């Protein structure tokens, strides 16, 4: 597997794990397990950081003159990265709502 394909898969894998953590955090908040929810957000954040590091390395490589091929796989990885950022923010808001406004 070529270097750039590996980079794309690293991004996809890390942000996929982050997305799963964020979604699980929402489920925990729905069950009023707010400590677990907070821990899952933190876990997701670390996966997201790891995905961003790989992406940053690709940007730096291109900025230093290396040709980084724009493939459908890399576009998919970037799309997943962006959508996971949105899911993270929505998860935090939903957790806040469950913590402060939803009474069972």
TrEMBL record:
The modification Phosphohistidine is found at residue 76. SUPFAM superfamilies: Enzyme IIa from lactose specific PTS, IIa-lac. PROSITE patterns: PTS_EIIA_TYPE_3. Gene3D superfamilies: Phosphotransferase system, lactose/cellobiose-type IIA subunit (1.20.58.80). InterPro entries: PTS_IIA_lac/cel, PTS_IIA_lac/cel_sf. Keywords: Phosphotransferase system, Sugar transport, Transferase, Transport. The keyword Transferase applies. The keyword Transferase applies. It comes from the Bacteria. This is PTS lactose/cellobiose transporter subunit IIA. It comes from Mammaliicoccus fleurettii.
């Amino acid at each position: 597997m070529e270097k750039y394909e590996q980079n794309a898969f690293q991004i996809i894998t890390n942000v996929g794990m982050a997305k799963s953590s964020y979604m699980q955090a929402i489920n925990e908040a729905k069950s009023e397990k707010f400590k677990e929810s907070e821990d899952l957000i933190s876990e997701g954040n670390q996966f997201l950081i790891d995905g961003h590091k790989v992406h940053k390395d690709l940007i730096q490589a291109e900025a230093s003159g290396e040709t980084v091929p724009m493939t459908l796989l890399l576009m998919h990885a970037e799309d997943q990265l962006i959508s996971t950022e949105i899911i993270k923010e929505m998860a935090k808001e939903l957790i806040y709502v469950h913590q402060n406004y939803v009474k069972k």
